[in-house]
Please model this.
Amino acid sequence: MIENTHGSGVPTVSIFGIPVSKWGLRDTVNHLCEAVESGKPHQIITANPIMVMAALEDPAYNVIMQEAELIVPDGAGVVWAAQKAGEPIEERVPGIELLHELMKEGQQRGWKIYLLGSTKEVIQETALRLTEQYPGTAIVGARDGYFGPDQDQEVIDGIRAVSPHLLFVARGADTQEPWIHKHKHSLGVPLMMGVGGSFDVISGKTKRAPKAFQKLRLEWLYRLLSEPSRLPRMAALPKFVVRVLREGENLKKSS
Model:
């Protein structure tokens, strides 16, 4: 079987036309270290089935996914779909674990980090805990995610003023990926990644799923049980499952 590669040479599997990296965590981190050192803007998307379904239903969101420099398989459903397509992914790459691995690298390489999103209390506690955990990195900025389009330029200017190597954005998948995509070149940050609820976990506001749920690939269920308000979003999951089962290996074709 001929292996698909993204424009950057990353081996990928097409999930309904979305190029998802087949690499595991270590190879992903190595690749992203090179991306940071290149100095060129890279948008990293940690994809789950809900985001894939959003891309299938919204052409604008599909463009965002297509133009990202790297899409990693965050959701267990994405890993399962790749297996069904006959092109297995090495392993799931959870966004929160990728964040921590990049912080470890940043500690050795002297990277500067900017945190954007969530509430003021959460972002401040996240910055404090990451500074304690990774003293070799410099958290050069932290701002909450409650701002509108009229404040975008002010936020961009604030980020550019401190020239971070990494920008982690936690504003929800429906907001963070479009925002990064829209302002990617204006921001000029080598690595920009949406991290969803990672700041809530790091700050201690919420807990990550227990290891048993992680091993069974049921983190999504734990989050749903912990936050029933997520149920409307989760409605995309059975749609994704049905579509994967119906398409089989054909899901590798663009839909």
Q: What stands out?
A: DSSP finds 13 helices and nine strands in the chain. The chain has a mean pLDDT of 88. Residues 96 and 198 are 6 Å apart (CA to CA). Strands lie at 4-5, 11-15, 18-21, 42-47, 70-73, 112-117, 138-143, 166-170, 191-194.
